[in-house]
TrEMBL record:
It comes from the Eukaryota. This is Uncharacterized protein.
Length: 45
């Protein structure tokens, strides 16, 4: 994932309507991966 991010064109969008919290596709991908893996490790949390 890190190499893919480094070598690719970046698309940045606003996370909220105020346009203050910028987020990329890769931010969302990393978040999804972390949540999935943490949920497996700690299913009752």
């Amino acid at each position: 994932l890190i190499i893919e991010v480094f070598e690719s064109e970046k698309l940045v969008e606003n996370k909220d309507e105020d346009g203050v919290d910028l987020v990329t596709k890769y931010d969302r991908d990393v978040e999804e991966t972390l949540v999935k893996n943490l949920s497996k490790k700690f299913p009752n949390h």
